[in-house]
Design goal:
It is a single chain. It is built from no helices and eleven strands. By secondary structure, the protein is mainly β. The strands form two sheets. Strands 2, 4, 5, 6, 9, 10 and 11 form a seven-stranded mixed beta sheet that branches. Strands 1-3-8-7 form a four-stranded antiparallel beta sheet, with no helix packed on it. The termini are far apart.
Length: 124
Amino acid sequence: VQLQASGGGLVQAGDSLRLSCAPSVRTYNNYDMGWFRQTSGDERVFVAAIRRSGGFTYYSDSVKGRFTISRDNANNMVYLQMNSLQPEDTAVYYCAAHRGILSTIRSGTAYAYWGQGTLVTVSS
């Protein structure tokens, strides 16, 4: 399974970005999809996830109300719409595929496949 993430860039505080992830897997619809982020020297931190059906979404407290995860199962795409970006959102963002039980959807160790990451930099 390959996951190609894109859409990162340099923006100012208050701006928006949309990240995209294209999983190259025939059984894409069997996976929950998540976004994590990592700053230099830190662990990858959960940002958002969406169930395989697309019916349920989950967010970290730090992004709730500002970020929206969505998926287009017909076209094998996952998106992370990021609004009201702040300097503390600066990180490398990774998309990942999860096939475990629901209770592990926020845990990076439960994700089997990861994309290469896309850098988001928010200036103040």
